[in-house]
Amino acid sequence: MTLDALIRAELQAAGGWLAFDRFMSLALYAPGLGYYSGPQRKFGQMPGGGSDFVTAPEMSPLFGRALAAQIRQALEITGVRTVVEFGAGSGALAEQILGALGGLIERYRIVELSADLRGRQQVRLAHFGRTIEWLDRLPDTLDAVVVGNEVLDAMPVQLLAFDGEAWRERGVVATPEGFAFADRPTELRPPLERAVPGTVTEIHPQAEAFVTTVAERLRRGAAFFIDYGFPEAEYYLPSRIGGTLMCHQGHRADPDPLVAVGLKDITAHVNFTGIALAAQDTGQTVLGYTSQAHFLLNCGLDAWMAAASLPDRAMAHRLIAEHEMGELFKVIGFAPREFDAIGFARGDRTHTL
Fold first, then answer.
1. Predicted structure pTM score
2. CA distances for 287 relative to 129, 211, 222, 338, angstroms
3. What pLDDT was estimated at residue 48?
């Protein structure tokens, strides 16, 4: 069965309308058919290699080295010796962290739902031997430092549209040519209702439920998530009328998730206020929230850049440049017990959440 046929079958079974989060889930994760389940290459520096986008670990190995400094501190303070990474992508970040921390990590566990990506990771990380273990699901308990780079943005979102009088949930219907949007009445609302007519925005129950689950199971250690997004007050500004939903294919961005379904990434920015509240509601303490630039510099990136070659320095600069990844990407950390995490030493923005 093709992905198109699978989605059409679900639409028929559902009465002709699918909520967007279900459509997004099928488009990205349908076994063997969705974007992340398929064999096409996703991560890389340039479109010539067949990739669709680049993440920070592919951009510069200094990203992982800086993050490893924060992981080292968390391991030493909390006394755990395990790292758990969600959605390890190409395996580049795991390789960088293990290369930097060596024997300090006794077990590096990767939770990876994509069989194709898992296979690629296993080839790349084979030289670390039994230190690495792959999991199909989240462990029941976590005594570990948890990391997730660009994981939350790929979790399915619900779409809400405001016509000037009422909010409606945006879903998907089938057409002879493909798929189209269709709105239905709903009781759902965004956290802040400051919309103007024509606004389309996202809410993130799946990402927040995921963080709740991680936080409930985190007994010792800490968790750090890196992604692009905003605090709630910025996310739902009236000027952000079109929301943040975006697709990536061949290193080009477009706003239409209903074409080339299964052949491109679909993402939405993260509402970090919702993530912080999800962790706090389980009793976790938010260690900090800041821009990627501040976090990496706090972790020593500037010193490693100074010692790097000019080409390597130029690539690492993209991690902290305001017009590249430095400001749009944020880092949030939480833990069962508070400590002064080095990544948030300067430039902490927890007060904006």
1. 0.95
2. 33, 15, 9, 6
3. 53
